[in-house]
Amino acid sequence: MREPRGFGAALIVASLIPAAWAVYGLASDILRGTRVFGSNPIKEGEHFLGEWTLRFLVLTLAITPLRQILRWNWLARHRRTLGLFAFAYGVLHWLVYILLDIQLDFSEMAADIVKRPYILVGSLALLLMLPLALTSTKKMIARLGGKNWNRLHKLVYASAVLGVIHFWMSVKADIGEPLIFAAVFAILFAWRIWKWRASRSAAAA
Known about the structure:
Blueprint: H1 7-32, H2 41-70, H3 79-101, H4 106-115, H5 118-134, H6 138-144, H7 146-152, H8 155-171, H9 176-204
């Protein structure tokens, strides 16, 4: 199957919709007193953007198995787009915390980290995504070399695991959604391990 016409542009537009909704909702709740994000809009806005970070990580990691199963090789060229959106939503999630929640009070942030270690876990997950975003261009792939670039981009797995742990720790009792993300990531990781072992067996044979 060939890539549908306009798929790339449609993907970018669709990926921007949650961010646009978050900006509108937070601005409306803070400036106009509406309840788009409920009675605690800043916390709910943070939660909303954090969930979308994980969703984009899922979509990024789902590209490879979907391409292999459906034989839609054109999907590979959109993996970078989805990965960059995962990073962008992670940055937005962090900025809402820094700018709106603690309002650049870094002494409060230090106290928060001691009291709520999931903030440190989430920050580490975002930090691991930074080199992936910075090396996502074709020039950086050529400069690093294919093998080194592939090794570096395996950090996405650690970032996904830390992101789920961050979510799990932050919701306390209601762990239903983190469990769903954990199960989906486990399936995506298991697929890669199975394919790797199958290729090794084939090479040995």
